[in-house]
Structures are given as C-alpha cells and as structure tokens.
Specification:
The structure is a homodimer. With about 375 residues, chain A is an alpha/beta fold. Chain A is built from 13 helices and eleven strands. Chains A and B meet through α4, α5, β2, α6 and α7 of A and α4, α5, β2, α6 and α7 of B. Chain A binds a DNA duplex (30 and 30 nucleotides) through α2 and α4.
Chain lengths: ~375, ~375
DNA sequence: TGTAATATTGAGACCGGACTCACAGTGGTT
DNA sequence: AACCACTGTGAGTCCGGTCTCAATATTACA
C-alpha cells in the first residue's frame, strides 16, 4: 500500500510544466482553470499533474489571490455542546459551499479571543464567525472589519459594532416562561448565571453577555406585567465553580426562592446536585428551569423543563451569512426563524404556599 | 476608539525599511531577530515598525521557512464533551509552547477525515494530532508521515502505523469492571456500542475502534477467568440513532440481560431512557455501567457508575509529544499515567436471581 | 602600522503559485 | 491584400517574507 505512493517531494507547477513540455504559465493556467488554454495543452498538463501527483500549495495560492477558501470560527467554550452543535451547523454549510473551517477555542478569555482573531487574520481566512466573550470589548473585532474581512457574530451581541448577529432574541421567551412561573404561583424566582458583573445586580446594569441581559429584561417585563416586583436579591451573577454555585443555590433557597432558573448547563448541574443534596424535591419543593436543551435533561426524574435554542440553525445561518458577504452580497437576515422556545418537561410545579418563604433571612450579598 | 487605529493597509518590511532608511534585508533581520544588526539600525527599524503598525504576513513567512507554528487537530465529534475536554488539554499545552491550534471536525466520517488531513497539510501545520475515525483506514495518515510532518494519535489506535498513540489501555479496566459485575452475580451482561461491524459479534472480529476491541477483550478475560462464558448475543454493535439503541435495549433485556454496559454517552442516554420507559429500576432490576464520566451522570437517581478516562491529560500528552517531535526530539511515552478507572456511583447492584432470565426468548439478531 | 578577523550592510535570489504583457497565429472583413 | 478581433503562448513580475553572497566597515592583534 505504501509502495503505491512514491515519496512525494512537493511537486510544483514548474515540475508539471517541464513534464508536459509547456511553459510554467500555461501549466499554471491549465491547473488553475483560468485564462486561455488549448485542449491539447490542457490534456498534457493534466496528465503530467496526475502522473507526478501534483498538489497545489495553498499557501502560495492564498498569498497572491488573498483568498484562502477558509472560514475562521472563534468560540468561548467548545466543551459546551451548545457550541459543538453550532459548530456542526457552520461546518455543514461551509463544506457545501466549498469552504474549509478552522476553529479556535478561547476558554471565554478575552485576551485569548484577541489572539485567536489575530491568528485567523494572519492565516488570511476569508471570513470570521465569532461568539464574542464580552459585550464590551470590540476593538479586535473592529480590526477585522477594518482589514476588510467579513465578520458575523453568533450567540451574543457586541455593542457598537455594525455586523450581523445570529442570536435568537431571549426577551420574549424569558418573559413567557417567567409569566408561566408566576401563573402557577411563583413570586420569588432566582436566576443564576456565570456572567460576571460589578457588584450585586441592579436593573439595567451593564452585562458582558447580551443574552443574559435579554433574559433578565424578559423576567422584569413579566413581573411588571403581572403588577409584581422582581426581587433582585435573587438574581445572582458571577457564579463560578461548582462550589460557588452550590453556595449560591443554598442562599437563594434560604432566601425563600420557590423556583430557580439556571442560565446554562454547568450552572444547572450544580444547582440540581445541591437541591438533591439538601433533600429537596423537584418540582414539589422547588421548581427548576434551565437554558439550553441538552440530551441529559430528559434523564433526570423528573425530566427538566428547558428553554431550547435552534443552535444548529444559528450556526448554519451565521455561516451562510459570512459566505454571502465574502462573495460580496448582503445577506437577508430573517431572525424570526431563530426563535428560542420553552420546552415544558416536568420540573415546573406550583409554588409551595408560603411555608418556606418564612424560614430564610434575606441574604445581604 | 476607532479613530486611534489608522486604516491599516498591509504594511510590509519594504515599507518599514523605507521609513527607517535601511535596506529591506536589514529591516527584515531586525524584525525577524536573525542575522547581525547594529543597535542603531534595530532601534530605527523597531520605531518605524511601531509607527507604521507593522504586522508580519505569517503566510509569506511560513512559505519560505516551512514552519507555521501551528498544530492541527482532527477529531470525529467535537459535540462530544469527551473530545471537547481533550481539546482543552491540547490547547493549554500548545499555547504554553507558543503554538496556535486549529481544529477540524469530521463527524466520524472517514472521507471528511481524509479531507481534513489534506487541508491541514495544505495549510502547512507543523504537526497533526488525530483521533482516527477508523482503525483500518490509514493511508491518509501515512501520507502525513511521508510528507515528513509529525503525527500523533489519541483516543484510538490505527493498525499498521508506527506513531505515538495516546489512549489508555481499556483492557484492564474493562476486565476489572466486568469481574465486579460477575462478583455480584451478573452472568448475562450486555454491551452496546455505536461502532459498526460486519454481521453479528464474534470474538476477535475486526473492529473499527481499538478502544471497543479492548473493552470486549477485557470482558472476555473476566468471564474466562471466572470460568464462565460471555454470551455473545448480548454484545450489540452498530447501534445508531436513538430508536435503534432503544430497540436493542429492549431486546437485550428481553434476552435476560441483568446488566448493560453503554459504550459512550449517547448510547447511555437512550439506554437509560428506555429502561425508565419500561418501568424498570436501576440498579434493582438492571445494573448499568457506562464509559466516559460526564457531569450529568451524577444527577440521575441513582448516580451512574462510569469508567472515567483522563481525557484532559490525554490531550495534553498528545500535544506535548507532537511538539517534541516537531523540535526533532523523541518523546518518552509514559502510558502508565494515562489510566482509565472505574468510578462506582450506584448503578451497579446484585443481579436479580434468575426470574427475568426466564421471560425472554433468545433474540436471533 | 599592516593585516587578519569580525561585524554590518545591501542587492538580489527564492518559496510556489497568479497574473500582466507582448507577441504569434488564425479567421473574418472589406 | 490590408486590417482587425481574438485565441494561445511564453517571459517575466509580483505577493511578502527569508536567506545567501559579496562588499564594505570596524575592530583586534601582532
């Protein structure tokens, strides 16, 4: 098997040209499929190329065309199946359009994101698809636009950047699900998120993630519409490792929360573990709702109610958009197709009347 | 903010040289940090570069050095947190060593893997880290070696390829866990895997995944050691979508299996869902064991016993190895550190004595 | 002070393709 | 027969760096 492949020694157009007895220019034309080439020459060149097992050097090609036929993707946390699925959407569309995809993971670190963007720009990707780690830091992304490379964002928005963003609006679904919780009697609803913020939560405070901002806005709207007031002590940001999430969970429960909303899968895992450890039952003692629809949410007893996003489609739409932009066209954004929906499974129940509210002291921090 | 960045127009060494009033060669030397350059010239060049906001063109640099300072990673399914975590191990090590990492996903498709390897080779990555989709197809990987690029594999082995492989040996842990199952009375143990094979299972048949082969070998050893015989009707390969997994689960249960071993997370999800749907209880009615330690395995009741692999470390070790190879050194492989272990949580119980064995007819297929 | 050794420097080749330009051949017009 | 449009073709330039080589400048040592 390995005999059949002669030791390949970077064959170039010049080699092919020599073998086919034509000039380098003609060989390049035949191989590259541009310019005028007679049938006779084309055939000879192709045969020679085949014979020598010629493979064009993409780098050289990219260097003087400026095109690499490659899309660069930057995500914060590829371990999260959320992004894994989006990545698949991107890959599928890209492959169909003849683009390669390369991915860089940033661990949600802005400095790493800046690096990643630089690397991809240096590798001359034709377009970039980014799930920005921070809503505020847009300088490196601005640089992409300045360099004239198409850029689209997905999953989250960034302030002050005029680019396409593919992220379902979370306000509506957050409002809707909060209304549902209110309807079955919940008044003290906790929301726990990893997103960091300066100091305790206040309405309208700047948040790194636009998604989280929208979710909170939706909650506020629901409460206001019901003539109630959202208790902001129960909105807990900056939840980091599993210990801190567990601690926060205990606090909000002690503070009388009758329902907990987890902002992502990681939060959800720790919250549920804590609830189980405290010997409480879902949904009898506490109701539970989480963002993102992972397969394992169906396995717990009861299965968990979730807010599902069309993650694959988001990725696919983002890829379609950059590719259009690369081709010089302007994508027609139809955001109404990217809608998040509440999937009721069984972790939301009626609020337990008043009994546990009494037991907790208001937590100061 | 965007005012401060003057519209950058691909500044080259020639531009810098002109600005610093030196030759292109001297500017390049100062910038690239090679050759002899006087302090005076170096300072002027650096100042000019700073002033013009010079950024070297990595492509051009790669083209005539042959080095790109980039590692290419190819995995089958980045949606699987298993690979996500390994990727993190790779990234961390690479970053520390000054390498960039680019990733391509293949959806476990050999053709896509061949493409991915080609793309990365075309982009002139310095080394490749691959989790091969198929044990048998090694031609494209052989081509990497022929091209003289370092290559290491992780997670799975490939036949007839003399490269470093970073994958814990599964035989021991499979044997150990099977012995444990046998010890508590299980005699009919089912094993369900996605890995495809031709026809029903026979001992020693060729399997696409070396991991699965080792797991089965371990099971055989345990049975043999106990003087028992593994029932091969209960070894079910080629489980595809969730319906087929559910169907297989029902079949092996009807066939009297008292314990089910799931070969990966996806299988596990469907198996458990089916067990729950049938109204059976873990571990009272059926014992359950799965490969890979995902966070959600602690959430179910009871929490699931798993076989955990040091996935992060595997990725890190693989990255360290390619980097050494790139530098022309030979890595000292110490596989004993990469050991998979059985984590007992609560889904393994005593076999229910004989009652259910009777109820199932032997399923032919 | 002479000369060898060493440090700096600029010109230009080179990596592997794409592409410009001038020139030759072909066929159709008038 | 003279003119024009158009296809084929090869020589050579360019992309943006690295690197070789020969020339010049500086320094060290006898």
């Amino acid at each position: 098997m390995s005999e059949s492949t002669p030791r390949r020694r970077d064959v170039t157009v010049a080699d092919v040209a020599r073998e086919a007895r034509v000039s380098k220019a003609q060989a390049a034309r035949a191989l590259g499929g541009y310019g005028a080439v007679s049938d006779d020459v084309r055939e000879r060149v192709m045969a020679a190329a085949e014979h020598l097992n010629y493979r064009p050097n993409e780098l050289a090609r990219t260097m003087n065309t400026g095109k690499s036929n490659t899309l660069g993707v930057v995500v914060g946390d590829i371990e999260n199946p959320h992004f894994g699925l989006a990545m698949r959407g991107i890959s599928d569309v890209a492959k169909a359009a003849g683009f390669d995809v390369i991915l860089i993971n940033t661990s949600e670190d802005v400095a790493a994101e800046v690096d990643a963007v630089r690397v991809l720009l240096d590798k001359r990707v034709d377009g970039l698809i980014v799930a920005p780690a921070s809503r505020g830091d847009s300088e490196h992304l601005g640089r992409v636009l300045e360099a004239g490379r198409p850029l689209v964002l997905f999953d989250r928005k960034v302030d002050g950047l005029n680019v396409d963003v593919f992220a379902p609006d979370m306000t509506d679904v957050a409002r809707e699900s909060t209304e549902q919780l209110i309807a079955v009697g919940h008044r003290r609803i906790a929301f726990i998120s990893t997103v960091d913020a300066e100091g305790p939560y206040r309405e309208g405070m700047p948040l790194a993630s636009s998604q989280v901002a929208e979710r909170l806005l939706g909650m506020h709207l629901a409460f206001r519409h019901a003539g109630l007031c959202l208790n902001r002590d129960l909105i807990r940001l900056g939840a980091g490792d599993s210990e801190s999430i567990a601690a926060i969970t205990e606090e909000v429960l002690a503070d009388g929360a009758t329902a907990i909303v987890a902002s992502d899968g990681l939060i959800a895992l720790s919250v549920i573990e804590t609830i189980q450890r405290l010997g409480l039952s879902i949904p009898d003692d506490v109701s539970f709702l989480m963002y993102d629809d992972f397969a394992w949410t169906k396995l717990t007893s009861p299965p968990l109610s979730v807010i599902a996003q069309p993650v694959y489609d988001i990725g696919a739409a983002a890829a379609r958009a950059v590719i259009l932009r690369i081709r010089g066209q302007v994508p027609r954004t139809s955001p109404e197709e990217l809608k998040a929906v509440l999937v009721e499974r069984g972790s939301i129940g009626a609020a337990t009347a008043g009994d546990r509210q009494a037991m907790g002291a208001s937590s100061a921090r």
